[in-house]
Specification:
By secondary structure, this protein is of the alpha+beta class. It is 63% helix and 16% strand. Strands 1-3-2 form a three-stranded antiparallel beta sheet. The longest helix has 22 residues.
Length: 87
């Protein structure tokens, strides 16, 4: 992800600037974003290495989620078939 100043993030996220700054501070404190000063602007970018443990942790649930979603899909299709008079 490219570096972005807070103002650009405010526009993209359609949130108030104080709210975006507050969230960025939390993300910076836990190492999920990096910040660099460029004159008067603070430039933010994601920290891939900081996010990797979160990604790996959620990846462990991917198989379970895929299985559960498949079961939901099968049930929905069976109910649809029943309501359309299919057997």
């Amino acid at each position: 992800m490219a570096e972005l100043p807070v103002g650009d993030l405010v526009v993209k996220m359609k949130l108030e600037q104080p709210s975006v700054s507050k969230h960025l501070k939390v993300l910076r404190d836990v190492g999920l974003v990096r910040v660099r000063r460029n004159g008067r602007h603070m430039m933010y970018r994601t920290n891939a290495e900081g996010i990797r443990p979160l990604y790996e942790w959620t990846k462990t649930f991917e198989r379970l989620w895929a299985h559960q979603l498949m079961r939901i899909k099968e049930r929905a299709e069976a109910k649809e078939k029943e309501s359309n008079g299919g057997g």
